[in-house]
Design a protein that fits this description.
- The chain has two domains: 104 residues, Helix Hairpins (Orthogonal Bundle); 131 residues, no CATH class.
- Helices cover 58% and strands 12% of the residues.
- It has seven helices and nine strands; from the N terminus they run E-E-H-H-E-H-E-E-E-H-E-E-H-H-E-H.
- Strands 4-5-6-7-8 form a five-stranded antiparallel sheet, with no helix packed on it.
- A hairpin with a 7-residue loop joins strand 4 and strand 5.
- The two termini are 63 Å apart.
């Protein structure tokens, strides 16, 4: 080939790189075939079964520990540093939610006062279509008729998405949402008067104020709630118990829990012995 009057070589494919890629792909397939072919052997099959039973045992005892702690929080003792950190996290989350809800309450109160002055604009005020109510200062209440989502999953679950529903969206003068969208009773018509809108706002305000009080109680509570410890914390406890590691951050604090721990350790050790026996017999 000629480029600008100069003979240029035609680029040739790099067969060496292609061979390396092909060999790498074949090597991967061979490794996967060996891994899959390793299971059907009888001792390997039982080894996989016993190991799966070991994992199921972890989940089972974690559920038992979580149930005991849920009914009797004093059945477990926790390291002081961990307890303080969990307590601080629990209180901080309550304070953050209370602050966020407090902002929504303040904006809703301003919207309610603005609507109380009258002079609200109704847009498309038709009971069969969406309705937008805009106050004098620019607060908006959108009453929307949502259409069902045509998905097999929604219909199978029988959820609200499989049928039409009514929703209320509240926005401030800046266009930002004031609160989470609210689901309205489907049989009730959209409001056509300011008094009807103010009644709905009053119900929302009352609910949000209760949520603020609940979260403030959580933020100032002298003792952490028993529910700050989740199932995943006790799955961790179950794992370190069955593996006999025992870091000492979570301790059994009742006879019932100690007996359950002893049972889990014995069953876990028995499964480990079975696994070792299968490995040795198969080698």
């Amino acid at each position: 080939m000629y480029a600008d009057g100069v003979l240029a070589e035609t680029p040739r494919p790099n067969y060496c790189d292609m061979d390396h890629r092909l060999l790498g792909y074949l090597g991967f397939r061979l490794t996967m075939a060996k891994a899959i072919g390793w299971i059907p052997r009888e001792h390997n099959y039982w080894l996989v079964v016993v190991f799966c039973a070991y994992l199921v045992l972890l989940l089972f005892f974690a559920a038992i520990y979580y149930g005991i702690h849920y009914k009797s929080p004093n059945s477990f003792a926790f390291n002081n540093d961990i307890s303080r950190m969990q307590d601080a996290t629990y209180r901080a989350s309550g304070a953050q939610r209370a602050e966020r809800l407090g902002v929504s309450v303040s904006k809703l109160e301003s919207m309610d006062l603005d609507c109380g002055r009258g002079d609200c604009q109704f847009i498309k005020a038709d009971r069969s279509t969406n309705v937008k109510i805009r106050s004098q200062q620019g607060y908006e209440a959108d009453f929307l008729l949502r259409q069902p989502i045509s998905s097999a999953a929604a219909k199978m679950k029988g959820s609200m998405m499989s049928r039409p529903w009514k929703e209320l969206c509240l926005r401030g003068p800046d266009g930002e949402p004031i609160a989470e969208p609210r689901i309205l009773p489907f049989r009730e018509p959209f409001p056509t008067k300011v008094s009807e809108l103010r009644k709905i706002l009053g119900d929302i305000l009352e609910e949000l104020r209760r949520q603020v009080e609940t979260n403030l109680d959580q933020a100032t509570s002298p003792l952490p709630s028993p529910r700050i410890w989740s199932y995943w914390d006790f799955l961790y406890f179950s794992t370190i118990t069955q593996s006999t590691v025992g870091y000492g951050d979570i301790l059994p604090n009742s006879t019932v829990v100690r007996m359950v721990v002893a049972l889990q350790v014995l069953v876990g050790c028995a499964l480990v012995i079975v696994i070792l026996n299968l490995v040795i017999s198969g080698s």
